[in-house]
Design brief:
2 domains, globular, single chain, 28% helix, 8 helices
């Protein structure tokens, strides 16, 4: 008896989803400005805060060369959902495991998609849950519910007293075991902030590729194999016949 059509490809894609990536994991402090992956600082005038906290929101951005490159990368890796919207970036020089290191890592992160919009522009849309970008020793929901500085936000009562961004940053950094960092002017560029000899926080938005979510070499090969014509006629497919 022949296996059901498509079963071999389904199995290979499932194995690809389980295959380890090339990095240790999303808890690593990242530097979105390092490496060859595209990233894009976004205009704070766009309603990007809503994208972080509202599942039905969308924000329109310009389609410059970098944005188009990111959109193409996102479309190519649609199954892996590698694109992230970050806000509040810890930048500059910090000590990690007693060694100095330069970082540019977001404190709030949400998976997003970047689709083509009208008039040649692009639309940023939520594609996953909001989470903290730093490893912390307590439940993430506790920090999000008690200190989210974004407005409007489902995590707190808008009528309640809210901590300012500095208090929120202090709480997150403290939960992650990192020292407090000064909030830099919103006009500070990400690359310039990364070169500081101290740590600082850029209260801005950026799109970037989550390297931890990118498929590793093993996963990529499995997906390529799943797409081969005639895969269901091979001995591999026979292993999964009913």
């Amino acid at each position: 008896m022949s296996p059901p059509p498509g079963v071999a490809g389904d199995v290979l894609r499932a194995l690809a989803d389980l295959a380890p990536g090339d990095r240790a994991g999303p808890s690593d402090l990242v530097d979105i400005t390092g490496g060859d992956d595209p990233w894009l600082a976004l205009d704070p005038a766009a309603d990007l805060a809503a994208v972080l906290v509202d599942d039905a929101a969308g924000a329109t951005i310009g389609a410059d060369r970098t944005a188009r490159r990111i959109q193409a990368f996102d479309a190519l890796h649609a199954e892996e959902q590698v694109l992230r919207l970050g806000w509040g970036f810890l930048t500059g020089r910090i000590e990690v495991d007693a060694r100095p290191r330069r970082v540019c890592t977001p404190l709030l992160v949400r998976p997003v998609r970047l689709r083509l919009g009208s008039r040649g522009r692009l639309v940023v849309e939520p594609a996953g849950e909001l989470e903290l970008g730093l490893p912390i020793g307590t439940d993430q929901a506790t920090v999000l519910e008690s200190t989210s500085p974004l407005h409007p936000s489902p995590f707190v009562d808008p009528a309640a007293a809210r901590p300012g961004p500095q208090a929120w940053f202090d709480a997150v950094l403290g939960a992650a075991g990192l020292p407090k960092s000064e909030v830099l002017p919103a006009t500070t560029g990400f690359r310039a902030a990364r070169q500081l000899d101290r740590s600082g926080i850029v209260p801005g938005f950026a799109l970037f590729i989550d390297r931890a979510a990118r498929p590793g070499a093993r996963a990529a090969r499995l997906r390529q194999w799943a797409a081969v014509d005639g895969i269901d006629a091979t001995a591999f497919a026979e292993l999964y016949q009913p």
